[in-house]
Specification:
Elements lengths: L2 H29 L4 E17 L2 E16 L5 E2 L5 E2 L10 H30 L1 E14 L4 H4 L7 E5 L2 E2 L3 E4 L2 E4 L3 H6 L3 E9 L2 E9 L13 E10 L3 H32 L13 H14 L1 H19 L7 H14 L5 H28 L3
Antiparallel strand pairs: 1-2, 3-4, 5-6, 5-12, 6-7, 6-10, 8-9, 10-11
Helix pairs in contact: 1-2, 1-6, 1-7, 2-5, 2-7, 2-8, 5-7, 6-7
Length: 370
Amino acid sequence: MNILVAIALWLLIIVVATAWHELGHYWAARAQGVAVKSFSVGMGPIIYRKMIRGTEWRVSALPIGGYVEIDGMAPDADRDGKLRAPTRGFAKLGALGKIVILLMGPIFNLLLALPLLAGYYTTQGVTTPLTDRASIGSVTPNSLAQRVGVEAGDVIVAIDGRDIPDFYIVDGKRREGYRQVQDALALPGRKSFSLERDGRTRDVTFDWNPKDDKGERRRFGISYGPAILTRQVAFLPALGEAVKTMVTGVPLVLQAFGNLVGNLVTLNTNPSADSGVSGPVRTVETVGQAAQLGAWSVLGIAALINLSLALFNLIPIPGLDGGRILLVLVQSVLRRPLSFEQENFINFLGFAFVLVLMVFVVFSDVARFF
């Protein structure tokens, strides 16, 4: 697919997800009588503006997000230009009111992701990975795999006469059973794969050495992953599946974030140490692949981006919604507000940390191609 079309689709998804997120903050603020000075779709130079009910609605030139300016969230400037803590709007609310405003952005993203995921599941079906089977995605022409009769679409159900388990333990770590294919091809010797094709099972046997005569690594010539079971569901059951996806997504996002921080600390950009966090390059690639599969696949990606945006914003890093909520709770427990300088410094550190993470993700993304 044309790379420019993929980039345009990705930017559209990002702008819609961000604008919807900010709309949640806007709605919660206005519901509590807090003024909203401006609402921008996009960032950077303003190309269109219109005042509606006390809010300046803007369209900005750079389609890379958006923002909402809630009265009393940003510091005020006195006549000498010095910044001071605000005393109105958001700043005057109690802890619960502030948390509602901060929480409503991620909640809006979740509310948008829910029907998008349900629609995707209704049209495309709900997929379940079968870890006790290895599905062959592709076979390299003229490879050993092709010569012994392996074809794309085959499913490996047994290796050397032993059924593939759901999971197995290696060095104390749990691994999905289909990864035994990799383990088998890492060792020399006579190998046997039991292949399932068109409802029938046949064995292919071959002699294998993972290194050639020069000692360099050989490739068997297959790409594979867990077999996928797809079942069709109606919209209401699909909503339940969407909720399950959201719940199971929480530990996955936290794990990916932890992996990302670990890679940042060790400056590890090796593709084999993939954190699970996709940068713009890989996301554009994914959107382009989804677009080739159809509109619902793109909406499925949009749902996952909304889900990721919601969960990431809830991580308690200063500067993000989760970090701001944490500061509100800390001040409630202490029963005294932090000084303006303290809160401003904490948020500055949080923003700097997030910026460093973003730069590292982009750098790691680009490093994959080299």
